[in-house]
Amino acid sequence: xxxxxQTILLxxxxxxxxxxxxxxxxxxxxxINTDQAITLKTVQVSNLKDQGIYQVSGIIKQGDQLIIGDRxxxxxxxxxxxxxxxxxxxxxxxxxxxxxVAVTSLSTNSDSEITAFDFRQGKLLITPTANTxxxxxxxxxxxxxxxxxxxxxxxxxxxxxxxxGIYEEGRYLLYSPxxxxxxxxxxxxxxxxxxxxxxxxxGVLYASTVLKARPDNQAFVCxxxxxxxxxxxxxxxxxxxxxxxxxxxxxxxxxxxxSRFPDVAYSQNNYFGFSDIAVSQDRIYAIYSGKTYKxxxxxxxxxxxxxxxxWDGNLLSNFKLEExxxxxxxDTKEKKIYVSNTSLFQLKNL
Length: 350
Prior knowledge:
Elements lengths: L1 H7 L29 E3 L1 E6 L8 E7 L2 E6 L4 E7 L5 E6 L10 E6 L4 E6 L4 E6 L12 E4 L6 E7 L2 E6 L6 E5 L4 E5 L13 H7 L3 E5 L5 E6 L4 E8 L2 E9 L5 E4 L6 E4 L7 E6 L4 E5 L4 H4 L6 E7 L5 E11 L1 E5 L4 E5 L2 E5 L3
Parallel strand pairs: 1-24
Antiparallel strand pairs: 2-27, 3-4, 4-5, 5-6, 7-8, 8-9, 9-10, 11-12, 12-13, 13-14, 15-16, 16-17, 17-18, 19-20, 21-22, 22-23, 23-24, 25-26, 26-27
Protein name: 6-bladed beta-propeller
InterPro entries: Quino_amine_DH_bsu (IPR011044)
């Protein structure tokens, strides 16, 4: 099972296109119209290759502190002081209590913590940021999620961990570490070409997700990488409730059930969806690709469309980006948006 998960998981190099010779029954694909979109100019801030980072897996920027996820280096992330250029390695590779085998969901929260999720070991790694005033602890820690489940992405939101995975019980896990209590909420998106597939199969189909929590920890957004589906939810009374779900297009896939584990293979003509999200207290900033592997090859995840939503789920704006990018972050200190590929850029006029 875990080997199969690794072929569909997460991020840009883990997807399987094994059934791409012929397309499945084509689902309605709704393109996001960018004809009238304003182009946002970018200003380069840093060449990340100069920092020894060649494949970025996530970015966080808070004032002078830049945290970069490193997909292929000896550490999973590095904290760079932009004034002194000093570096601090975060989340070393390994199986010790503060190390990780393979991570997703690089994020920060209102507790001045940096988190990353090790989906191989099912644990959320936590370390204080460099800007933390009088941190409670300078040591890294982790939260172990229920070991009987296959978890994919996870973030911390106040006292809870929110996670997605191959769950039959529901779309989202809401886990309380203090009470060691797990609860599952909401349903997976359907697929019009496969209306009768099992919940476990839907879990595989919609496995690759981006999760971000609102700074007040009362809401979160989940976007799918291999479709145009984005889900905005609130956390209330220890429950998850859906605010709004948009589906710009469904994934183009071939699905076979009946074996011990469902076979979900994406078409090379599948439109890639959202590669990353940034959030502020009142806005959601989602970068969207809309490209296919057949047309764009390994660059299919590079995004030049920025969609801006409010937390009620209204699509407010859509912009074109000068540079094709893969990651985005909102700097709460500067109130500015930054994006990256192998360089870090600031978005202007937003």
